[in-house]
Prior knowledge:
Layout: E1 5-9, H1 16-26, E2 30-32, E3 36-37, E4 52-53, H2 56-64, E5 68-74, E6 77-82, H3 83-92, E7 95-99, H4 102-111, E8 116-121, H5 125-138, H6 144-158, E9 166-169, H7 173-192, H8 200-209, H9 216-225
Parallel strand pairs: 1-7, 1-8, 2-7, 3-4, 8-9
Antiparallel strand pairs: 3-6, 5-6
Helix pairs in contact: 1-7, 7-8
Adenosine-5'-diphosphate (ADP) binds near residues 10, 13, 17, 173 and 176.
Amino acid sequence: xxxxxxxxxxxxxxxxxxxxxxxxxxxxxxxxxxxxxxxxxxxxxxxxxxxxxxxxxxxxxxxxxxxxxxxxxxxxxxxxxxxxxxxxxxxxxxxxxxxxxxxxxxxxxxxxxxxxxxxxxxxxxxxxxxxxxxxxxxxxxxxxxxxxxxxxxxxxxxxxxxxxxxxxxxxxxxxxxxxxxxxxxxxxxxxxxxxxxxxxxxxxxxxxxxxxxxxxxxxxxxxxxxxxxxxxxxxxxxxxxxxxxx
Length: 246
Ligand code: ADP
Ligand code: 5GP
């Protein structure tokens, strides 16, 4: 494709949608691929805006018809990216951003190794739990079972971080948005020779610091908090019920 394909993955509640929304306000020329899903709309979500909501039957028909670039089952529901999104991006020449889970990202990398992949981490398990709970409260549906399910999946998803080219820790929102913007601009610069105006050296520096190979030290405490790397023998779940937590 003429444009660049960006993949962004993160455990649910890490702030990926928030980051993508902010990025789209700052950077033009990036289109967001609206996925298909069989899950029910949440809060103020509208069909055709956040997702194309559909039934399992219709989704399975689309799988059979080869309409998806990738698809996966996440939290008991199907999610998939329509090939049409990629075709449209190719025709128009814009960059395309896919917000997909680790399984879908692996499928896309297989067929399109040139894709730029970004993994977003929450700073700690406690922060992730608070964000998930706050989001549920804001949407007026606190479903403890669903919350627990998403939390217990988080560490498993984070284990895949090494497959991504860039890593963002979404602690302070403004900083994470600036890092995401820097990644997009620097990839345009390296791949298309697109000018980044006067801020160029700073942008390249910020993006470079987010490359997987440059994040080792910063990631260590985050990974340990999630029970990954150097802490594999720990017995307690990172999301244990601490009464002071929320
Ligand atoms: P995701 O798309 O990864 O599931 P959301 O973007 O819906 O996550 O974010 C989950 C919740 O966390 C939302 O209520 C959002 O407002 C909040 N949030 C996101 N990023 C931050 C941040 N950096 N600091 C504080 N709250 C955040
Ligand atoms: P949510 O239900 O919170 O919107 O999304 C749950 C998970 O599904 C997130 O990890 C999100 O990235 C992932 N997801 C959303 N759309 C797609 C898609 O088209 N394909 C795949 N594989 N995962 C998706």
